[in-house]
Amino acid sequence: MVYQFSNAETNMATTIASVHLLFLVIMTSGLPFHKAAGIETEKVALLKLKQGLLDPSHRLSSWVGDDCCKWRGVVCSNRTGHVIKLNLRSLEDDGIDGKFGGEISHSLLDLKYLNFLDLSMNNFEGTKIPKFIGSLERLRYLNLSAASFSGRIPPQLGNLSRLIYLDLKEYFDLNAYSDESSQNDLQWISGLYSLRHLNLEGANLSRASAYWLQAVSMLPSLSELHLSSCGLSLLPPSLPSSNLTSLSVLVLSNNGFNSTIPQWLFQLRNLVHLDLSFDKLGGSILNAFPNRTSLEKLKKMGSLCKLKTVILSENDLNGEITELIDVLSGCNNSSLEHLNLGFNKLGGVLPNSIGNLNNLQSLLLWENSFVSSIPISIGNLSNLKELYLSNNQMSGTIPETLGQLNELVAVDVSENSWEGVLTESHLSNLKNLKELAIFKFSLLPDQTLVINISSEWIPPFKLKYLSLRSCQVGPKFPAWLRNQNELNILILRNTRISGTIPDWFLKLDLELEQLDLGYNQLSGRIPNSLKFSSQSSVYLIWNHFSGSLPLWSSNVSTLNLRNNSFSGPIPWDIGERMPILTELDLSHNFLTGTLPVSIGNLYGLITLYVSNNYLSGEIPELWELWDGVPNLLVHVDLSNNNLSGELPTSVGSLTVLIFLFLSNNHLSGEFPSALQNCTYLRNLDLGGNRFSGNIPAWIGRTMPSLWILRLRSNLFNGSIPSQLCSLSSLHILDLAQNNLSGSIPSCLGNLSAMASEIELFRYESQLTVLTKGREDSYRNILYLVNSIDLSNNALSGGVPEGLTNLSFLGALNLSINHFTGKIPDKIGSLQRLETLDLSRNQLSGPIPAGMASLTFLNHLNLSHNNLSGRIPTGNQLQALDDPSIYSDNPALCGRPITAKCPGDDETLNRPGGDDQDEDEDGAEMEMKWFYMSLGTGFVVGFWGVCGALLIKESWRHAYFRLVYDIKEWLLLVIQLTLARLQRKLNL
Fold first, then answer.
1. DSSP H or E stretch at residue 52
2. Is the pTM value of this prediction over 0.85?
3. What DSSP string runs through 710-745?
4. How far apart are CA 962 and CA 949, in angstroms?
């Protein structure tokens, strides 16, 4: 039977079929329709983002055309075609101009499928991190590090529940970071329960200091945590929960916790990398473990044995590390690769068990107090690449087993007390060695370590860095370096090398970054063929090099040739040939001629030392402004030459000058007014010249930071300006040997640097100071010298009482002037005084009794005055018993001079009550002891002589023969004398 459909049913069937057909078409070909629509929306969003960004290097020039998936930094899904990754990170190759800036458009929200966003290493110039980033709910990777944002981290980022990787390291603009609005909390991270990697390095988390550990413990999947330099002042002693079981990397450096190492750190079972450097941690490392049993237990749990990197450097940790190393080395297969305990206070010996850390690649124990020698087992560390043991208290010999470490790249065992001989056996298998440092900064002659390497030996390595200082390498230049053609830095200072630089060294054709051959006995001429890399340094100080000055590559920035025998003129074109010099030291040579004008072209020059030569002529206008840019000179020393004329006015352009030494030349004219511009001057020495006129009052106003003012041995006249009293940092004032007149300003006692212990900057500078009656040269401790010398002038009036306020004054010389009146009664207040010279004045009155309390006084001269009365006694004055100290003071009396005071000849035994009784008792006791000693001496002497004569007959006969001969000789002399007198009387 054939069933016939009605029209309605037919239409219904057709409709259903059409719907099914349409669905099938959509299922098979509808995706491109949605894909195209989706990509068009995302393309528009990207173009809006581009429009808001500043792109000075046109990195987004490829963002054209229809297919945005081909644009730079854009990645689309292979399956859906949607934009899933946007990488706009600035790379080093992009340069400074390659950094994006501007604003981040809200159009990013149209990238619905975005799971990766990297805007790091850009410069958004202090704009805030957009809050809407927290709405990109599919994000799994977010990196905004070093992008120069500002403000707080928006808490909306806590909505990114799918986020696995979050890097906000130094997200801030350095210029805006000090703002309090940059202080962050960590409440927002609780929603990031998928997070595995969290880096907030440098972010200000001071608000979260009390609960940061609790906050991160809420992230159960966290495996890496970087919170260095976050201002976290609290390191909790215990874990609030045990959720950090997945943590493998923990970086908490530079937070200043100021605590001990908590025990929970080494209980993290999966911990591989631990960095607690720069955290002010104290106590022993073993404080992290209750006892050795705990250590063993942790080892069995695998907590310690999984550690690959331990960085605890730059702390205050103390104690020994023997027990810790023993446990770590006892693991079945120790994973430790990097151990950095440098810059602490650790001590003791390095245990032999350190040789069992067979995976160790770097061992950094420098700047501690380890003692004894390097253990022989060091040769077992076959994977070791870095060994840093410098600046400890180690001693003994360096073991030959060091030569077995064929993976070793860098060795630094400097600043220890090594002894013995180091031979090629110590270096024989170090085929990968690039850096070797064995030195001491001491210049003492006792060099206990000898480097005795055969001149025939050819090393298996190619060094880039070699530093040997204060050990015996000589007498010849080390021939084993003849194949080291990759050297960048060569330091052979104070190594007893003599002779000339060999030709083979020149043929190595090195391009050196640093060459230091100082403090040897090298001689001969220096060839100009040496090559140097950019910004290089050359130190050939304290040798016997001779000939003309060498001019090397224009790359040299530091040239130090002091204390040699170079002669001839300074090359006239030195400023053109070596244009980037920042330090030039040619002092203590035999250079002649004038200062080249081309030195003025060295616009980067910071130090200029040409003292102690034979330079002559005037100082040229070296320091004119260069296109309006002031000169950078900080140190200038032209002293001890034959320079003449006036100081050029261009010295006023040295606006950052700190040290100026022009002493012992023939310079003339008035005090250089151009120096008013040198407002940062600390040391000014114009001594030993022919400057004249008044000392300007503006010194006290324009040079407020002056430490030293030395104008001695010139022709200055007029009075001492009272404005000098405002120089609160002045600790050496030397105006001696001029024609100054008037009185000493009473306010000179206000020089606070000499009145109290002020923390001065520990600077090094050489200066000759007259103390203790002689000229002494100070260098390393110059900053400790406090001295006032106004001697050999025409000053008058009284010695100001205010000078006695300078309780830290070490030397006061007012001799050869016209001072009158008394020595101040409070002179005893100068408790640090070592030298006092008031001689050749017209001082009168008694010497104050308080002078006896100057316990540091070791040089005193009060001669040639009108002082009177008894010289005080007691304490330090007892030792100063040279009568010349008080000579030519007619009215003085008492010891040590011969003049006696009234009453000195009277009998001392006057009635004096109890005191006299005590004196009499003491005198009586002394007399008893005297007679007892006298009797004992008589008995011993008498029987020693007479007893021998009684016992030995031959001695007795000889003795009486001698007495008889003496008697006969005396009788003869008397008779002859009487005969002569009789003859004279008869005449």
1. helix 31-52
2. no
3. E--SSEEEEPPPGGGGG-TT--EEE--SSEEEEPPP
4. 13
